[in-house]
Amino acid sequence: MKFGTFDDTRKEYVINTPKTPYPWINYLGNEQFFGLISNTAGGYTFYRDARMRRLTRYRYNNIPLDNGGRYYYLHDDGDFWTPGWMPVKRDLDFYECRHGLGYTSITGERNGISVNQLAFVPMGHNAEVHRLIVKNTGDVKKTVKLFSFAEFCLWNAHDDMTNFQRNLSIGEVEVKDSVIYHKTEYRERRNHYAFYSVNQPLAGFDTDRESFLGMFNGLDNPAVVASGQASNSVASGWSPIGSHALDITLEPGEQQSLIFVLGYIENPEDEKWEALNVINKKPAQAVIDQFATDEQVDAALAVLAAHWDNLLSKYQIQSGDDKLNRMVNIWNPYQCMVTFNMSRSASYFESGIGRGMGFRDSNQDLLGFVHQIPERARERILDIAATQFPDGSAYHQYQPLTKKGNNEVGSGFNDDPLWLISGTAAYIKETGDYSILDEQVPFDSNPDHTATLFEHLKLSFEHVTNNLGPHGLPLIGRADWNDCLNLNCFSTVPGESFQTTENIAGGTAESVFIAGLFVFVGPDYAEICRLRGLDDLAADAVAKIDNMREITLTHGFDGDWFLRAYDHYGDKIGSNENEEGKIFIEPQGMCVMAGIGVEGGQAAKALTSVEEHLDTEYGIVLQQPAYSKYYLNLGEISTYPPGYKENAGIFCHNNPWIMIAETVLGHGDRAFEIYKKIAPAYLEDISEVHRMEPYVYSQMIAGKDAVRHGEAKNSWLTGTAAWNYVAITQSILGIQADFAGLKVDPCIPAEWDGFEITRVFRGDTYVITIKNPNHVSKGVASLTLDGAAVDGNIITPVGDGAVHQVVVELG
């Protein structure tokens, strides 16, 4: 069942009912200022850090679920409603939401009045612009009242939701002309405030929540809106809001445009005030003046559209499959950029309070966006590396505002350091910029203790070889990629964190997954050493990689598949010897991606076992059989009900590892079959089952043991976005950046006749035509560049900034 449709020409998803199976959201902002907005205008806004600089309040786990946002109420002769349907929920004569790239447009119509609410964050500005077009679609003159509404958060979202004895006494605002200024705590340690403006004279305003709503009312029935008259309330101590009241009179067919700006301002310490306790409003007014007219708004929208057109132009496919085209050309790279901006911090499943930027997460996200914004990828790599410790370990997370490690989570996730090698290698392959390796990067964000980025990579590599267990496999630490496989925790205390509590010193439990990851990323490290002229170091790295490969085959293979781990007692995890959790997806994917067991047949056995034991119609589950009880030696993974999250859920993040692994063995049909099972555009027709947005990936889909098999959760912010983009663009379609140039090595369904890729690489544009006359899955028979034959399948960069024609024939 569909709830909307793709508009590929406009790069939009068009939702035609407000009653979607779950709130379907979009992200506003590309730089420092961001907003989340749902198809019914719910969500919130923040500057850089969703915890420390939140402008508007949002209550997760609310009833109704998506309640609170940037709302606009229409009062029409006693009848009042909202164009996004929520929160008033009056029936609408027409409803449409268009989620585009960095903007959302919501239209509602009732009783002859149409309201279009367009929201976006202009490039280069720390503000959210909302343009409302109110139109009289009837045949009689209309006089209506319009009320805006935004509830201000007291900056620190965690403190805002917990410290009521203080926060219910500190709210402060100023109102001047048509602008409401939120200045709570500005009188003391803060130098920042928020403002909310409209480009029309006001008929009134409200800044006190209780006055606006009425003591016993909710957002569905605000007293001010119901009465049609603002109270001109000024918040003092209690909860501050921003609400403008405007009188609108329209003849039949007439429309009026209203431009609202919700923004963030930081003032220098010596320029905080105009007068005693009167904030310096000049910077806010300067922003407001830039969006005072429709022409200015249209110009800003054009800049935003050009920004996205430029980013998406780096990789485009033309094929006979519209769903594939829209995923590769529009929605998957768009989601990759959102995950770059947000990591795992702020979605409708992540509150923005508990997590910052992940070390592992952000390095993986790099893989999906590095070709779009390499200069920002470079900055992100250096930020990540600065949270590393001198022994090669790293903070698991860091805060985007301070860029310092998050002490609440700490370190000890032993796969983390290897991902820095992966992210850095991806950047160098894309750009050819080796100078990043010579950048001085702090340890633990301490500018007095630095080393080159290359030294950080060396420490990352050696962190594995310096922390080996009894079988010679890497120690798992607090956890590896699977944060819920906690082999050193042994927790019996309710509410205790599985990830940060180590009840038994982690000197025994080993990870086969980290072994596979080491063999997978290690060759990139060795090649970087070689390219720097460090041949001895490169040779040593290769020897250690080869040794780990053999150890993995000796101690990490269970006969038909790769083991997952050894626990604290040295017992196997993910083995046929286990009663539950006999086989896991992660080591099968990562070890085969690394090429382990390809020559000896173990890799093929492992992937056959995945298909036999883990595959479902909605994707590949994480492990089987599901855990039916709590295992003290395994930790959080066994706390979830069977079929959910890490306990045999379809964890979409590692499904693409199996896709990539299948291409290693040349299985193009199987790789694309798996791709289609979890790619959202292919699931649009079953949205009532899937529930999440049909334009972006989710972290998890309920597995075959779950009550709601096929139902997704945790959409948007997931490494699924980057890894699926890598799987389809690099491994299946086969266009891969490499140290030496652009490698072409497709692995596709044999029935495909071919396709065309446009790829911008190191300043050149390559139009790559893939022909498959013999209907094979893999193998480049010939490659020409501008008509000249190329030996092998790597295109050496031309470097002239021109467009070049590449023709590839498979065979």
CATH class of the domain at 4-309: Mainly Beta
Strand count, sense and barrel status of the largest sheet are:
11 strands, antiparallel
Helical proportion, percent range: 25-40%
Decide which structural class fits the backbone: alpha+beta
Average pLDDT for all residues: 97
CATH topology of the domain at 4-309: Beta-galactosidase, Chain A, domain 5
Spatial sequence of strands, sheet with the most strands: 1-2-9-10-11-12-20-16-15-14-18
Spell out the CATH superfamily of the domain at 4-309: Glycoside hydrolase, family 65, N-terminal domain
Overall shape: it is globular
Contiguous runs where pLDDT drops below 50 for at least 5 residues: none
Count of helical regions: 19
Q: Please count the beta strands (DSSP E, at least 2 residues each).
A: 45
CATH architecture of the domain at 4-309: Distorted Sandwich
Rg result = 28 Å
Strand content: 25-35%
Through-space gap between termini: 41 Å
List keywords for this structure.
811 residues, alpha+beta, Beta-galactosidase, Chain A, domain 5, Maltose phosphorylase, domain 3, eleven-stranded antiparallel beta sheet, six-stranded antiparallel beta sheet, 19 helices, 27% helix, globular
Care to give the gist of this entry?
This protein is α+β, with helices and mostly antiparallel strands.
